[in-house]
Amino acid sequence: MTASLSTKIVISGSGLWTPPEAITNDELVESYNAYAEKFNSDHAADIASGKIKEKSLSSARFIEKASGIKARYVYTREGILDINRMRPKFPERKDEELSYQAEIGVLAAKMAMSAAGKTAADIDAVIVAGAYTQRPYPAIAIEIQHELGIEGFGFDMLGACSAATFGLHRAYDSLVSGSSKCVLAVNPELVTPQVNFCDRDNHFIFGDVSTAIIMERSETCTSPNSYDILSTKALTQFSSNIRSNFGHMSYANDVDPFGWDKLFHQSGRIVFKEVSPIAAKIMSDHLTSLGLKPWDVKRFWLHQANINMNNMVIKQLFGEEVGEKIIPTILDRYANTGSAGSIVAFHLYNDDLKSGDIGMICSFGAGYSVGSLVLRKR
Ligand code: CO8
User: Is the pLDDT of residue 146 over 60?
Assistant: First the structure.
């Protein structure tokens, strides 16, 4: 969708909540390997008879080389490194207490509101978009709306890797149509509860984070750092190569609601090969539709799943390698934060752009899904 001259929509503020705790590759691998050795010893007879497979050991060197990840922030370290638990510990909160996702959503939202110079009274819509919501209802967005004292409406939406960009698309559409005047879009990506820390292929990939964006019409924007949204573009194409079967049907399916297939799992190499060209094509088509070429773009804020994948996408787009300054990476310290990665990159790496500079946010991954926005600094 491309904005007409009469309907200028802007991003006027962003917020980022980073968890205070982190886990390095070395720490994660040490605990995983201790778990795997114990598993192999506890199941030695079944492994010898071929009934179950031996667990292979993980390697910090492999993780960094294959993904670019060195560490990840987590809401809590408790439980993740405990070889008798291998998952984070989140005590259940009472209905009267703020939920975990609303808590971290509010923290990021307040930063975005402050950056945009907005109070609750200025905002009339809240969108929570993420890879997961911790419950189906009441919507986390409505809880955040209530906590911040915002009047209007809120809703949750899922979209895996592209939830954050798709959420911004919905915010943009509602501003263009006039159904809202200022939207708070929040991505409380609390993903470590869905990570299979017992699986070496996946145990290193994810971290927790929360991001937020304020989007409004240009007439109301008073922010010193804002971006015109020139256009939005989205594509989805069905694939089971990245999948979680967790959901409300488990109760009626008579299956283990916590079985391995209910957690995140993927064929990472196939995803890498299939998604990279799709993302590069969508980005190229999107820029072409605006009469732009890749070199016209000063900054690409890309989905943060894998450094080699991002380099591949950009190489396919440009036809050559380009520097880190154009495609900043946050993967090394944040790992993959679900859909929030491109927004984290945007938040941390946009201050230095000058008025008129073009930037592009692009997410890609599960679904498959690709979502992009072309921005121009005001
Ligand atoms: N240590 C040592 N060896 C390992 C490890 C490890 N930790 N893990 C795997 N290996 C082994 C493999 O078993 C394999 O061994 P073998 O050859 O004997 O079979 C060998 O290393 C090579 O494995 P791969 O071919 O899988 O290695 P790759 O170079 O492809 O790297 C990656 C694996 C890093 C997973 C890579 O394929 C990748 O990142 N692909 C992109 C995937 C992607 O973008 N996925 C999107 C994720 S979804 C998302 O972003 C957000 C939505 C969902 C949120 C969910 C939150 C929980």
Answer: yes
